[in-house]
Amino acid sequence: MPDIQLTKGDIVLSRRNLLTTGAAAVGAGALTGTFTSPAAEAAAKPTPSTAAGSIPKFAVAMPVPEVLRPVRRSWNTDYYRMTMRTVSTEIVPGHQTEVLTYDGSFPGPTIMAESGRRVVVEQTNALDTPVSVHLHGASVPTSSDGYPMNVIEPGGTRTYTYPNVQPNANLWMHDHAHMEEAEHVYRGMSSMVVLSDAAERKLGLPSGEYDVPLVIRDVDLDDNAGIVFTMDDSVNRTTILVNGKPWPYFTVEARKYRFRVLNSTNLRWLAPFLADASSYTMVGSDGGLLEAPYSTPAVVLSPGERADIVIDFSTYAPGTSVVLQNLAGTGDPAEIMRFDVVAAKAEDHSRVPAALRTLPALPTPTVQRSVVLTMDEDGRPNPMGYINGKTFDMNRIDTTVRFGDTEVWTVSNGNVTTPHNFHMHLVQYRVLERNGKPVDPSEAGLKDVVALLPGEEVKIQMTFDSYRGLYLYHCHLMDHSAMGMMAQMEIV
């Protein structure tokens, strides 16, 4: 990630210009883990709610999201049915909290998909507000991309078809209804879709019960344990949830585990870091496996980014506990969850090979473009977000792309204090450079979200050779996209 020193005790991590923990500081808001905008500062409350303050850490077991079973299978397609509905769940012990869900689960169930095999999902909206389902990171026809105005009205049903023509990737499903997406996702509407292939399975990475999704989010709770949504509030969302539970513990055997980490927060930046400063191995990012594994004490994830990591717990004696902390912040909450190590059931035959995949050579680009992300940061009420100086307009095509072209986009953050990131629908891209320098291994694979601190610039390259039609690009700090930081491209 960007060029600064992340410090934790005696450990100094190069992450170029992002965060510093410990005794040092890098400017207003950086140590909260969310980066504070003027609007968020103005909305800050002096104390957390009574409900949030009563949550004990590491007191509840972390659940593993269930795997959704197809209702029918044909020779080339798996068919699913999901219902979006409101349910109550226990976040604060002894209290019920209303959340929005896919199929009644918080977070939603995992769909296990296979590259080259279609997935068809019939989505029914049992909520009282329109929704639009976006499969983030997927190459899909525009009819199934979850365009913000292609909504499912309350009581309605829509069928989404996912061809899965791309290789292995950690995808996720979330709402994208216009002006509603930030609140809907914040209140619970996220669900992982794991796309696998034969080449990935041959590697021998940890699998089965040792392959675990970690869906991380944060919430602001009122005194009755209700979820409070305030636009662009990066200050008060202080309760960290992993797979729907606050600061949980997870019992692991003394062996290798694969964790598919998703930052499903709206605004908070994460840098998962084992409290004893042990390194783990990053094997994949947004668009699937890296070319080679990458040993690191921390991986920085802006909202929407994914990291596929392997932690070897055989280095710990049974009975040991180790806390997973958020290095993107020194204050409360510094913790994410705790791992409790027990004896392994059997010998561990999983491995992390030295080579994971070979990415295709980058073709020569035919088009160069520039994109500037900004938002109002002068403290005005109801600030707006902009791409190239314009807020989102469904009646305007911002970029016309010729089918088959390879393009390089220079994306920059024009703000002084506010961070952004950049997500494109339809395509996975390669990050060529950050601030004129090569990227580190965590960003060297296929990406669909790239982080941008104030004043930063990245160059990305992608080829538009899968589908024609209308698609979005936007900041994936979802409050920012809902504030207008979104644009449209048409592939013709």
Automatic annotation (TrEMBL):
InterPro entries attached to this UniProt entry: Cu-oxidase-like_N (IPR011707), Cu-oxidase_C (IPR011706), Cu-oxidase_fam (IPR045087), Cu_oxidase_Cu_BS (IPR002355), Cupredoxin (IPR008972), TAT_signal (IPR006311)
Tree of life domain: Bacteria
Pfam families given in the database record: Cu-oxidase_2, Cu-oxidase_3
Residue ranges that the Swiss-Prot or TrEMBL entry lists as coiled coil: none
Reaction(s) this enzyme catalyzes, per UniProt: 4 Cu(+) + O2 + 4 H(+) = 4 Cu(2+) + 2 H2O
First-level EC class: oxidoreductase
Tagged with keyword Ribonucleoprotein: no
Gene3D superfamilies the record matches: Cupredoxins - blue copper proteins (2.60.40.420)
Plastocyanin-like domain mapped to chain residues: 89-197, 369-490
A single MF term (Gene Ontology): copper ion binding
Keywords: Metal-binding, Oxidoreductase
EC number(s) reported in the record: 1.16.3.4
Subunit structure, interactors included: Monomer.
PANTHER family in alphabetical order: BILIRUBIN OXIDASE (PTHR48267:SF1), CUPREDOXIN SUPERFAMILY PROTEIN (PTHR48267)
Similarity comment: Belongs to the multicopper oxidase family.
Protein name per its UniProtKB record: Multicopper oxidase CueO
Upper lineage: Bacteria, Bacillati, Actinomycetota, Actinomycetes, Kitasatosporales
